[in-house]
Amino acid sequence: MIDVPVGGLVADVFLPERLPAPTVVVRTPYGTPGLWPEADALTGAGLAVVLQDLRGRHRSPGEFEAGADERADGHAALDWITAQPWSDGVTCLYGTAYEAYAAWCAVGHPSVRGVAGRQSWPPAAVAVDEELWWRTEIGGGRQLRPGLYDLALTRPAWPVPLGAWPPTPSSWHPQARRASSRIRAADLPTLHLGSWYCGSAATTLRQAALARRATVVMGGWASPLTHRLQPECAIDVPVDPDPSDLALPWLVAVATGADPMEGHRCLVLGSNRWEQTDPRPAARPDLRALPLTGPASSSIDHDPADPYPSLPHSADLLVIGPRADVVRLRATGHVEWRGAARVRCRVRTDRAAELVATLVHETPAGVRTRLADGTAPITPGHAVAEMRCAPVAVDLPAGHVLHLELTVGRRPRHTAPETPVTVTVSDVELLVPGGRR
């Protein structure tokens, strides 16, 4: 490994024994040491590897502005790489989360032969807790700051500048459009690795739907870039193949002109089985209603002094206990779907608020964990609200139960009003995609 300036930014360069060689490029805001084991594996397979700190991150000079410089800086890095005597002129781009975004931004360079991205950034919709975690621990300053998110939740004022807060669509839509346009224009093999447990699941599937030659794998991977597994983890984390075991052979094959021989795969939660099927949902799926049991009409009484809490993704929601500020319904019959569930209901409220629908999986042991959620703004008066939940593949075995919870906010994941709010809900429907692709 050698440490060199690449396109004005700092990078680690790993070279195989035989040169010239194709090059795998990862441009990262997270620091390069965590990527060294994968780089070593790739050089052992005959590829060169360049791991570059993004502008304003770790060793690279400048100021980091999320989404701003990745096309120009990425092309500069690829120009430098392909001009080196050890390069055969072929590159592949790779990365997780923001690294994948940086890869998509540079995909138009003529040297690029393929892109492998895992759990891509930016998310299709931002939950407040996920955005706060990004801005405190990942997206601000030169270095990672692990633990700052948890500290921020205990402070009356944020311990670091967050920029415009709370987040709005303008926080991520420009970057999302930028990545989408690059993916749509690229006619080359792409590998899309996602996790149902990650807020990026919808982004992974949306980008894969835009790609012309996509292979899509949706699993249940747990990492700090997914749902921040807690010590009290209640999720039955599936035994998945490691994403590196899928991505690295694919990169080697594409870079050397071989057939990657990798097909679509989809992990089905609940049963935790793998299917050799395309996990991308249909663009306009037929919807069917899952029967629900519970009160025909009920009220949510929000108290700003005691808002309904949102525990970490991996925690057991049963510990929250009975409350007056939640409407809980239970699905009956066999629960199975692939894609984005929708919740519709009639609402009557005295103040504006955000209605949150949370789909909760309860195991025979009584453990309850979040599968997916969605939100909708509601205004004073009578209306129909519709919440589109995050996509997921679900097939609950016998003895497992699906609950639908309706709340006003779910702090810190979703904002809650600062004044008391009463919301009456009725005619609740849970609509799920009715068939497989």
Please describe what this structure looks like.
It is a single chain. With 437 residues, this protein is an alpha/beta fold. The chain has two domains: 2-126 and 172-275, Rossmann fold (3-Layer(aba) Sandwich); 287-433, Sandwich (Jelly Rolls). The protein is built from eight helices and 22 strands. The protein has helices at 36-44, 70-82, 98-105, 128-138, 148-153, 173-185, 201-210, 243-255, and strands spanning 2-6, 9-14, 21-28, 48-53, 87-96, 112-118, 189-195, 213-219, 265-270, 273-275, 287-290, 292-293, 297-302, 327-331, 336-339, 342-349, 353-362, 368-378, 381-388, 392-395, 401-408, 421-433. The strands form three sheets. Strands 1, 2, 3, 4, 5, 6, 7, 8, 9, 10, 15 and 20 form a twelve-stranded mixed beta sheet that branches. Strands 11, 13, 16, 19 and 22 form a five-stranded antiparallel beta sheet that branches. Strand 1 and strand 2 (9-14) form a beta hairpin. The longest helix has 13 residues, at 70-82. It is globular and about 70 Å long. 47% of the residues are buried. The mean pLDDT is 91.
